[in-house]
């Protein structure tokens, strides 16, 4: 499952990226999509498999489930992840 994790600052996002990569997760640092509200301009796109707890431990302020685009659309959609 792909999750988008938002952070309070760019520094926190960069630090979390290092921590999650060291834990063996697939992580991509990307700009925050327009659909997602965040005080920081960066977020992490993470393939969590069974390691969702690591995102919360990394200091994530918000978690969003990534929904792949519908046929004919090119943008992903995001919904809050509980």
Report what the structure shows.
By secondary structure, the protein is α+β, with helices and mostly antiparallel strands. It has a single domain, classed as Alpha-Beta Plaits, CATH 3.30.70. It has helices at residues 10-22, 52-57; strands spanning 2-6, 26-31, 42-47, 62-67, 77-80. The protein has a 5-stranded antiparallel beta sheet. The longest helix has 13 residues, at 10-22. The chain is globular, with a radius of gyration of 12 Å. The two termini are 14 Å apart. The model has no long low-confidence stretch (mean pLDDT 89).
> What's the CATH architecture?
2-Layer Sandwich
* Strand arrangement across the biggest beta sheet: 2-3-1-4-5
H and E order: EHEEHEE
Count up the domains.
1
How confident is the prediction overall: mean pLDDT? Answer: 89
Residue runs with pLDDT of under 50 for 5 or more positions: none
CATH first level: which class? Alpha Beta
N-to-C span: 14 Å
Q: Structural class of the helix and strand makeup?
A: alpha+beta
Strand residue percentage: 25-35%
Please give the largest β-sheet.
Answer: 5 strands, antiparallel
Radius of gyration: 12 Å
Quantity of strands, as a count: 5
Provide the helix percentage.
10-25%
């Amino acid at each position: 499952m792909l999750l988008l994790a938002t952070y309070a600052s760019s520094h926190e996002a960069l630090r979390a990226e290092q921590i999650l990569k060291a834990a063996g997760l697939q992580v991509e640092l990307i700009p925050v999509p327009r659909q997602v509200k965040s005080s920081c301009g960066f977020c992490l796109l993470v393939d969590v498999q069974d390691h969702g707890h690591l995102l919360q431990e990394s200091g994530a302020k918000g978690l969003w489930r990534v929904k792949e685009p519908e046929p004919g659309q090119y943008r992903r959609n995001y919904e809050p992840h509980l």
